[in-house]
Amino acid sequence: MPREILVAFGREVKLVPGRANMRPTSMIVRRRGDTYTLSYGRRVSFESMKSFLNSERVKRFFERTEEKAQKNAGAGKRGIMYGGKEFIYFGRTYPVRREASEKPSLVITSAEAVLSCPDSFTDEEVSAYLKERLRAALKDFIDERLPVWENATGLKASRYIITTVKSYWGKMFADTRVMRISDKAVQKSAECIDYLIVHELVHIRHNGHGRAFRQTLAKYMPDWKEREKKLKSS
Ligand SMILES: [Zn+2]
């Protein structure tokens, strides 16, 4: 049996086993009124709760929510923060902080992803919402970059589809010129996604990855090898 209270940065945090549908490795800190609680999934060890609660991220969370609570006796009293839940966006990893609000929104600052959503949102609803936002961000990026590369190469896709397929980054069918980009690409930096776009465009002209393919690729993107390495490194 884990102890029921942990002290971190002078705050008492009540440890509460998460609901059955909580992800096994998730941790969530909440502030309700003047009380902090940590909900944890069934595979979270006492040690990892301790190190999570003593992290700089949680310290900032304590400070920020308390600052807000002082400023605003209403909504600011509530705060929520995810441990273990991270948001990978264009090559950078952000901790997710959750705030209560009626309408969901997501704001990405240099330090964190701030998710505002109703308190009633379950873990699954949060994941679905974050996923939808990631997809929209990838779409915005491709909408902006694809025409740029089509102009540079003179190779035009008929359209593109963002898929959820994890076994490839991209695919191009030369006969229909439909470009497929996996939604996992949004986790990679802009230079990697640019490379992916050019790679797929070049497949309109060349099947496979032979010498001619690589030469054409290098013509439009001389540093493609480095970009490819970054794309394929985890
Ligand atoms: Zn290819």
Short description:
With 234 residues, this protein is of the alpha/beta class. The chain contains 6 helices and 11 strands.
How would you sum up this structure, described in words?
The protein is α/β, with parallel strands linked by helices and 234 residues long. The chain folds into two domains: 117 residues, no CATH class; 99 residues, Zincin-like (2-Layer Sandwich). The protein contains six helices and eleven strands. Strands 1-2-4-3-5-6-8-7 form an eight-stranded mixed sheet, with helices on both faces. A three-stranded mixed sheet has the order 9-11-10, with helices on one face. The protein starts with a strand and ends with a helix. About 2% of the residues have low confidence. Zinc ion binds next to loops. The site of zinc ion has 3 residues, from loops.
Identify every distinct bound molecule in the structure, by name, code or SMILES: zinc ion
The unreliable regions are 74-78
What can be said about the biggest beta sheet?
8 strands, mixed
Helix content range: 25-40%
Strand content: 25-35%
Mean pLDDT: 87
Radius of gyration: 22 Å
Element-level helix/strand string: EEEEHHEEEEHEEEHHH
Q: How far apart lie the N and C ends? A: 37 Å
Coarse morphology: elongated
Number of strand segments: 11
- Cross-sheet strand order for the largest sheet: 1-2-4-3-5-6-8-7
Structural class: alpha/beta
Number of helices: 6
